[in-house]
Specification:
Oligomer: heterodimer
Strand content of chain B: under 5%
Strand order of the largest sheet of chain B: 1-2
Order of helices and strands of chain A: HHEEHHHHHHHHHHHHHHHHHHH
Largest sheet of chain B: 2 strands, antiparallel
Helix content of chain B: over 70%
Strand order of the largest sheet of chain A: 1-2
Number of strands of chain B: 2
Number of helices of chain B: 23
Chain lengths: 498, 492
């Protein structure tokens, strides 16, 4: 039995867990206020994990481990690799901010971040309902603690409570749905569930209703985690209330994990029910685009605006997922899911840049979180304004920035399914991006056309500044040469579906 | 790297360097770097003209490399007789605009110059792209620098103008994007224009696609009734921005009709030609009348641009050699003339800080040299024989008369309005007694301004007297285009 465990499939997770424990202990000896040693050690560990994942992903192999409980495949490895890098970037941007806000009395931020990342890994690798659920809980429990890390802050504490109550509800939904699917199919392993439904055994037993009801709960649980309408209520409050560094930790890397579990559960597990869940996703996507875009226009708080923008962006991403199976024809699956994967990866990259600017503009006693705080940024720092403008144009979907190709590939997946319904969805999505363009442009306007209201010097560490420049440059460069990342997503999804 | 790539990327590279300079404490150096960039950018386009083979409609200076392999998108460049002069015009206007903005821009000079250089490279990209997605990327990317140019260096109401410009054009182009992806799907996965030219399409599909392209291109041209953004934007944009907008950006739309609507959708183009001709005539006549009552010089020239672009679209949709060639000639001529008109207004604005016609009068007394140039450009604007403005309009009117006498008559009558609003503005601004103290204290053109005006004047006169180099280049390509448009693409 022990030789069948295939430890190799879980090496990155094991390394991450070990280092998280080591760093938790090592931090006890660190005395400096900004926890330099912990910070460097964390980045080194994460770098090693990312390297390991990158190598595994490049090899392109798919390995099942622990008796089929987890899987190490190219899609999972790439997503884990990007999530690790996103977490590293988050820590680089957020360290100064957290230090000024009394969030680093201990090294919990680093340890919790690593455990959250471990939760994402388990979600992404999970090949079994329960394992996926375990990963999700590890991520969310760490996130609750992270949001509450600034424990003397009323807003943050309130956000943590909200996040916890709604998150627990969502987890309950998901677990309830999974239990019904288990009841109908008699298995928790993804391939067996799939076979059971495809072979008709699950429906023969007269449990088709149970299965469908279970699916509804699963989709609702996933929608909570993705933060799409009508399960989006927590998103603006938590984005707004959490310390900005933690907002980025919640709004960045975990989106990759959320995408992965959508693929694992709905495609790898419940693909024969695609007709049903695609309809549900269509409703979620349309509502998210509507509510997200219109509500974002009305915001004056930058973090709330970005929260609604996230809702809209996730809605757009879902459009790709619902174009996979058309009238029983599965030919468009690879195309559709890889377009969504590309969308979510580039979205995370852009989000990192956006919040990076907000974090670096904040200083002790000053949260740079109102849109008006960015006024005249171009005169104060052309670099920050440039990065922010690039990110905004990218989110608006203007070429030659990477967000355009994300929208292009999703629209292409929709139109490739050739049905009036899908063409209608594409036109709707396009009109919604026009509305979205308005509030993204407004931010550019504030930075470039308005006169500055703040005059304080912008101080940020060299590490954060250089990472921010690279981040902004990547959004532009991936826009000029998006082919590589697209091919990577296509290969990863093709390996998954093979 | 091919010549076209050089023409696109040289100005962009210089622009990026300027942006990277950061804060603007080195304005003089920045101006010189920008000028060098623009001149080098113009110089690399010269071999395109000297090496261009006449008498063939084939693409020349072709470059092709895979770009995004997943979607079969290629970095495919090439020019034919239709686009060659537009590429040259873009590089030329870029130099002119940079020289013209030498002293009038004093804040954030590096960003201003950088934006113009990048914009110029992108527009050359639009004119030379042979892959629809590459075209779209360049086409859309031009919005970003222009948005910033209007918003940062514009007039009092610049924010409204910048948003109106961006959102108006974005709506049109997004519908075109859906059309492009649809064509990609039905063509079996190709974005190559050459493939799309051979693609059979049903009547309904053609009509829908025609209006999707119409949404993008008509807004850009702009055609009546979607022209309302242009006067607002022109009034608020800085002088250089207005010049580039009128001289080049409007041509992106007209060029789009020639590259996409006509050859890909010949049946729909014929079916809806009546609508296009009607809208063009409304632009020519009604907007011409609107121009006459304007109090603001920039607004007047903006409306006159809409009227002149009406001739372009009118020429395209009568489907004759003369009409299409006339339309293209008119595009180039309008590039020279409108740039000169806006830069001329800029000369006055720099001195008096007003664009109101009523604030001037008798400028000829204090600025005789400038008034002479202005007279030439005004004459060109009303299409006087011997100037650039005459050639294109004359060809289009001839073509229209051949197609239908009444269309020709209506189009020709517009020349009267053109003369009326141009000359009346000239009379009120330049002639008569000195109007007020501002005008009394005016100083005539300095050497730099004289150079800009002289170069444009030479171009306007040369094109008016000897249009052969322009028409020779496009003959074969236009003939080929019309042969193509005459063949139905409805599935048998």
């Amino acid at each position: 039995m022990i030789d069948k465990l295939s430890w190799v499939a879980a090496y990155p997770e094991i390394l991450l867990l070990t280092m998280a424990c080591v760093i938790a202990l090592a931090d006890l000896t660190v005395k400096t206020p900004l926890r330099g040693a912990t910070y460097v050690l964390t980045l080194l560990s994460l770098g090693a994990v990312a390297l390991l994942l990158g190598m595994a992903a490049v090899s392109g192999t798919t390995t099942l481990g622990f008796g089929g409980m987890i899987v190490s495949d190219p899609m999972g490895n790439w997503l884990k690799c990007f999530a690790t890098i996103a977490m590293m970037i988050t820590l680089v941007y957020g360290r100064g901010y957290a230090g000024q806000r009394d969030m680093m009395r201990g090294g919990e931020m680093f340890t919790l971040a690593m455990f959250a990342l471990l939760g994402m890994f388990v979600m992404i690798s999970g090949h079994n309902f329960l394992v996926i659920y375990l990963g999700l809980e590890l991520l969310t429990l760490s996130s609750y603690a992270l949001v509450a890390l600034r424990r003397d802050d009323v807003q943050a504490t309130e956000a943590a409570m909200k996040y916890f109550v709604l998150g627990a509800l969502a987890s309950g939904f998901l677990l309830y749905g999974l239990s019904m699917v288990y009841g109908a199919t008699g298995s928790l392993a993804l391939p067996e569930v799939m076979q059971s439904i495809a072979g008709g055994e699950a429906t023969l037993k007269g449990s088709a209703q149970v299965l469908t009801l279970g699916l509804v709960f699963v989709v609702a649980g996933l929608a909570f985690k993705l933060g799409v309408v009508p399960f989006h209520m927590w998103v603006p409050d938590v984005y707004h209330g959490a310390p900005t560094a933690i907002t980025l930790m919640i709004g960045g890397a975990p989106k990759l994990a959320a995408f992965a579990i959508v693929i694992r559960l709905l495609v790898e597990g419940l693909q024969p029910l695609a007709f049903d869940w695609q309809q549900m996703l269509a409703v979620l996507a349309v509502m998210s685009l509507l509510v997200g875009n219109f509500a974002a226009i009305a915001q004056t708080n930058l973090k709330r605006m970005l929260a609604f923008s996230t809702i809209a962006q996730m809605g757009f991403m879902l459009l790709g997922l619902l174009a996979g199976v058309v009238n029983g024809d599965t030919g468009n699956m690879a195309n559709a899911y890889s377009s969504s994967m590309f969308y979510v990866i580039t979205y995370v990259l852009t989000t990192l840049g956006t919040f990076g600017v907000i974090l670096l503009l904040s200083r002790s006693g000053f949260e740079s979180e109102n849109i008006s705080d960015l006024a005249g940024l171009n005169q104060r720092s052309p670099l920050y304004a440039g990065v922010m403008a690039i990110c905004m144009f990218s989110l608006a979907g203007v070429p030659p920035l990477v967000g355009f190709y994300a929208k292009l590939s999703v629209l292409q997946a929709l139109l490739a399914s050739s049905g009036a319904f899908y063409v209608g969805l594409a036109v709707f999505a396009v009109i919604m991006s026009l509305i979205g363009a308005f509030y993204y442009l407004r931010l550019v306007k504030v930075m470039y056309f308005d006169a500055p209201t703040q005059t304080a010097d912008i101080e940020a560490g060299l590490d954060a500044r250089s990472v921010l420049s690279v981040n902004g440059a990547l959004v532009l460069l991936l826009g000029i040469l998006p082919g590589g990342l697209m091919a990577l997503c296509a290969q990863a999804v093709a390996a998954l579906l093979a | 790297m091919g010549l076209l790539s050089l023409a696109i990327w040289t100005p962009i590279a210089f622009g990026v360097v300027l942006l990277a300079l950061g804060r603007d404490d080195q304005a003089p150096m920045v101006r010189w770097i920008a000028l060098v960039g623009a001149v080098v950018g113009l110089a690399v386009t010269v071999p395109l003209y000297t090496g261009f083979k006449l008498g063939t409609a084939a693409l020349q200076f072709v470059e092709k490399a895979p770009w995004i392999e997943n979607f079969n998108i290629h970095y495919h460049l090439g020019v034919d007789g239709i686009s060659l002069w537009l590429v040259l015009l873009t590089a030329f206007i870029n130099v002119v605009v940079i020289v013209a903005s030498w002293e009038s821009i004093t804040t954030r000079v590096n960003q201003y110059m950088g934006a113009f250089l990048i914009l110029s490279g992108l527009m050359i990209g639009v004119f030379s792209a042979q892959d629809a997605m590459l075209f779209y990327v360049f086409f859309e990317a031009t919005l970003i620098p222009m948005y910033l140019i209007i918003g940062i260096w514009g007039g009092p109401n610049k924010i409204y103008a910048a948003f109106k410009f961006f959102l108006y054009t974005l709506l049109g182009s997004l519908l075109m994007l859906v059309a492009l992806i649809y064509l990609y799907t039905v063509s079996g996965g190709s974005f190559a224009l050459a493939d799309w030219y051979q693609l059979p399409l049903s009547g309904t599909a053609q009509t829908l696609l025609f209006f999707a392209f119409f949404a993008a291109f008509a807004v850009k041209v702009p055609m009546w009734p979607v022209h309302t953004w242009l006067p607002d934007v022109h009034v608020e944009a800085p002088t250089g921005g207005s010049a580039v907008l009128a001289a080049i950006m409007l041509k992106l739309g007209a060029y789009g009709f020639l590259r996409f609507s006509l050859p890909i959708l010949p049946d729909a183009s014929h079916e809806w030609a009546w609508l296009m001709i009607a809208l063009s005539l409304v632009a020519v006549i009604y907007v011409g009348l609107v121009a006459m009552v304007q109090q603001d010089m920039k607004k007047l020239v903006a409306y006159s641009s809409v009227a002149h672009m009406g001739f372009v679209t009118l020429g395209f949709f009568v489907f004759s050699d003369l009409g299409v060639s006339g339309g293209i000639v008119q595009m180039i001529a309008h590039g020279f003339v409108s740039a000169a008109m806006f830069l001329g207004i800029g000369v006055l604005y720099d001195r008096v800080h007003s664009r109101e016609i009523a604030d001037y009068g008798g400028v000829v007394n204090t600025m005789p040299k400038f008034a002479a140039f202005a007279l030439l450009f005004t004459m060109a604007n009303c299409g006087l024989p011997g100037t650039a403005g005459f050639v294109g309009e004359w060809m289009v009117i001839l073509a229209a008369v051949k197609a239908n006498f009444w269309i020709g008559l209506l189009a020709a009558s517009a020349l009267i309005f053109g003369a009326a609003y141009s000359l009346w503005m000239y009379k009120r601004v330049y002639l008569g007694a000195v109007g007020n103290d501002n005008v009394k204290n005016l100083i005539d053109l300095n050497a730099r301004e004289f150079l800009v005006m002289a170069v444009l004047a030479l171009a306007v006169l040369f094109m008016g007297v000897y249009p052969k180099p322009f028409t020779d280049v496009m003959d074969a390509s236009v003939a080929e285009l019309l042969r193509h448009v005459a063949v139905s693409k409805l599935p048998q």
